[in-house]
Design a protein that fits this description.
Elements (H helix, E strand, L loop, with lengths): L2 H30 L7 H14 L11 H6 L19 H5 L9 H27 L5 H14 L2 H8 L3 H17 L2 H14 L5 H8 L3 H22 L1 H15 L11 H8 L4 E2 L2 E2 L11 H21 L8 E2 L2 E2 L14 H23 L12 H9 L8 H18 L26 H9 L1 H4 L4 H41 L1
Antiparallel strand pairs: 1-2, 3-4
């Protein structure tokens, strides 16, 4: 047998073993152990969908309590504070209307399965867009390991959050941008912003890049969703959301799960004990002074200014050896494309730098929102040729690896040392086999240092955004250097 054939004979089963083990670890935490979970956030959103279907207003701290009880949905410890009631745009609840045809438990399990389908689709779409040079067997194995290590997925799925949906829509928007398909990109971003407002920041990015067709498609689809939902739910529901709920959300949250800079601002203007609860577990509306509002505005404007300084303005021109070409699939490793191929690598980093910045400057960005950033981690760790060569590549890889760990470990397992997100069920119940749970039991971050969770997550998010900004700035400097030399040569020729 040839040496290459012998190596493949060993590699293939090794890759299969790695893939199977990683998927078993992942599915134990994300599906099997969460099968009997209360899915609290989905339960709230689903009850809101029932209310909208029946013509009722879902907004207000206690507005949904009786309806939830009548549906068999959990009510213990919820519907008593702002962040344990329905707080999303009406369009977010309307996206769940098909699930109102099922009873509560069936609906939660269908949605849990859908979350896995959306996650798998987003990962596959991202990898097919980037086309890493790794052999397929190791590409699948590597993706499985990264997903298994992404502990926030477990928390998001057990809560019934919409992060997998947002992840898929953002991945679709990125695919459309790479392909030059403005309708797909604009529509995907508009749909994501209709569920959670933060992705709407990407439309400002495309406006800055002079990708006006993307902005027009995004604004058009967003307006259509607004008008249709307005006709369905009525103006009173939107009035409640815009005049009561949204201003309360803008004040931020001091809760330990809030990983944004808004959490720092909220904590700085909130007493250590509020409403009889420590600020780290307080989920109601926080007090806000004029200084807090000014600080929030200053952070937001400062972040936007930093984005403008880092990201070059102007529409991307697709060329091959200096000649314009039609939009094509991104091939980051086709070095024959020259400088333009390297410019196209920046599309990914710019796109997810904007998403990360949106999370940082949002008044509330729960720690599991970092699932939205999964494609950037897949790109950095599975397609390292997207990164600069030499020592810069190793520095970038180290930064992404540390950020991945800081954003995901240990997971939120409650003060009891046993994951409160998981509930015993007849299908399977081994939360102790979930890596993040085992780490929390050893480290005890949530049990002993609840006030420090924010600083771990925020530091990881800042490191991630900083790494992306450094990649974008480095490429911008490299691009400016030859252009300056060409200008000097032309000037001397004159």
């Amino acid at each position: 047998m040839r040496p290459e054939g012998s190596r493949l004979a060993l590699e293939r089963p090794a890759a299969v073993v790695v893939t199977v083990v990683a998927l078993l670890v992942f599915l134990n935490g994300s599906l099997l152990s969460a099968w009997g979970a209360l899915h609290v956030d989905l339960s709230i959103n689903l009850t809101a969908a029932h209310a909208l279907r029946d013509g009722a207003d879902p907004y207000g701290v206690t507005a949904l309590r009786e309806r939830a009880a009548s549906l068999g949905s959990p009510t213990n410890l919820i519907y008593g504070q702002l962040f344990t009631s329905y707080i999303q745009p009406p369009t977010s609840a309307l996206s769940l209307l098909p699930l109102t045809l099922l009873d509560w438990r069936d609906a939660t399990r269908v949605y849990l399965v859908l979350n896995h389908v959306f996650l798998l689709a987003a990962v596959a779409l991202t990898l097919s867009t980037l086309r890493p040079s790794l052999p397929l067997r190791w590409l699948i194995a590597g993706a499985a390991v990264i997903v298994a290590a992404y502990a926030q997925i477990n928390a998001s799925f057990a809560l019934g959050q919409v992060d997998a949906t947002i992840l898929l829509l953002l991945s679709l928007g990125f695919w459309g941008h790479v392909r030059g398909n403005a309708p797909v990109t604009g529509a995907a971003i508009a749909c994501a912003a209709a569920i959670k407002l933060i992705p709407g920041l990407l439309l400002l990015y495309f406006l800055w890049k002079r990708e006006y067709r993307v902005v027009l498609w995004g604004a058009g689809v967003g307006l259509a969703l607004l008008l249709v939902s307005l006709a369905y739910v009525g103006a009173d529901v939107y009035e409640s959301y815009l005049t009561e709920t949204l201003p309360a959300l803008a004040k931020g949250s001091t809760h330990y799960s809030n990983a944004s800079l808004g959490a720092l601002i909220a904590r700085a203007h909130t007493p250590a004990v509020i409403g009889g609860l420590p600020e780290m577990i307080y989920l109601d509306e926080v007090p806000a002074s004029d200084w807090a509002r000014l600080a929030g505005i200053g952070v937001g404007l400062g972040a936007l200014l930093c984005l403008a300084l880092a990201i070059p303005r102007g529409r991307r021109v697709r060329t091959v050896r200096g000649e314009p070409v039609e939009p094509r699939v991104l091939r980051p490793f086709d070095l024959a494309q020259g400088r333009q191929a390297q410019d196209e690598r920046m599309i990914l980093w710019e796109y997810y730098l904007v998403v990360a910045t949106g999370l940082l400057i949002s008044s509330v960005a729960w720690e599991f929102y970092v699932i939205w950033l999964l494609p950037a981690f897949l790109a950095a760790l599975l397609a390292p040729d997207l990164l600069p060569a030499g020592r810069w590549r190793w520095l970038a890889l180290a930064s992404f690896a540390v950020a991945l760990l800081a954003l995901n470990y240990p997971a939120d397992c409650g003060s009891s040392g046993d994951c409160y997100l998981f509930e015993a069920n007849d299908l399977f119940y081994h939360p102790g086999w979930v890596p993040a749970v085992r780490v929390e039991r050893m480290v005890g971050l949530y049990a002993n240092h609840l006030d420090a969770v924010l600083y771990l997550r925020l530091a990881g998010l800042l490191l991630f955004a900083g790494a992306l900004a450094a990649l974008v700035l480095r490429r911008r400097c490299e691009t400016a250097r030859p252009e300056a030399l060409e200008g000097r040569a032309a000037h001397s020729g004159d």
